[in-house]
Amino acid sequence: MDKSRLPRHVAVIMDGNGRWAGLRGKERVYGHHEGAESVRACSEYAVETGIEYLSFFAFSEENWKRPEAEVTELMHLMAVSILNERPTFRKNNIRFVVIGNRSRLSDALNRDIDLAMEETSGNTGLTLVVFLSYSGKWDIEQAALKFAAAGAPAGRFGDYLATAGIPDPDLLIRTSGEQRISNFMLWQCAYTEFYFTDVLWPDFRKTEFRKALEEYASRERRFGKTGEQVTIETNGSK
Ligand code: IPE
Ligand code: IPE
Ligand code: MG
User: Fold this and answer.
1) Hey, which of 17, 39, 63 would you mutate to test ligand 2's pocket, going by the most ligand atoms within 8 Å of its Cβ?
2) Tens of pLDDT along 61-111?
3) From ligand 2's centre to the CA of 91, what distance in Å?
């Protein structure tokens, strides 16, 4: 892997847990548990390769509309995962961050999140971001309110988004064959490269992650310029 062509920030829309379980004649929740193992595997791989930011869309604002039993199970899985991963965060120097409309989460879960965030805030390795009860439109709305209250300082809108301080994603991966953004980071993905795969999230482990990174490395990002301009800049001459 050419390190100079590694994305700085990879974001993932983890999709297909329910279908993965269904194919095996199991309950959806079984797929969510296997999906949590993929989060672990991909985080490990990100640490190994030196990716700086890895974001996971774990639960959208719209996901609150799912059957209550599934929502409860997902929230429980989140709490358990945070508890279980704390030693790994320590060992791997991972900074753990949760972003989303946290007013909708239980007090107990919020306490677990705060604890893990405080405990890892000084870590300098991978920043692992979990988007929980998040939606891109919610983020833009809450940012707009704060931005207006601050007197709308020119060119600073991004500082009011929930992702302030985190660079925009370079690569967005979505599993399970769906090709949509489902209200994820709408503002932040303005120039993100998209990678779609039919692989279901519980099957997306290191080999699949590596494939996505290799595909990203082969792409040319232009940011509105011509291909020729980009080639000259990449080769270091003007
Ligand atoms: C992704 O898998 C996990 C969450 C959205 C919480 P799904 O639960 O959406 O699985 P499918 O799409 O029904 O297969
Ligand atoms: C997107 O998956 C949200 C998360 C991965 C948390 P969904 O499965 O909820 O998306 P839609 O509803 O199919 O677009
Ligand atoms: Mg889905």
Assistant:
1) 63
2) 999 999 999 999 999 999 999 999 999 999 999 999 999 999 999 999 999
3) 31
Is 15 marked active-site? yes
Tokens of 113: 């999140």
User: Selecting from 3.30.420.40, 3.40.1180.10, 3.40.50.720, 1.10.10.10, what CATH number does the domain 3-136+162-234 have?
Assistant: 3.40.1180.10
Report CA-CA distances (Å) from 43 to 16, 61, 63.
Answer: 19, 24, 23
Is the full-model pTM beyond 0.70?
yes
Active-site residue flag, 63: yes
Q: What is the pLDDT of residues 120-163, one digit of tens each?
A: 999 999 999 999 999 999 999 999 999 999 999 999 999 999 99
13 CB within 6 A, ligand 2: yes
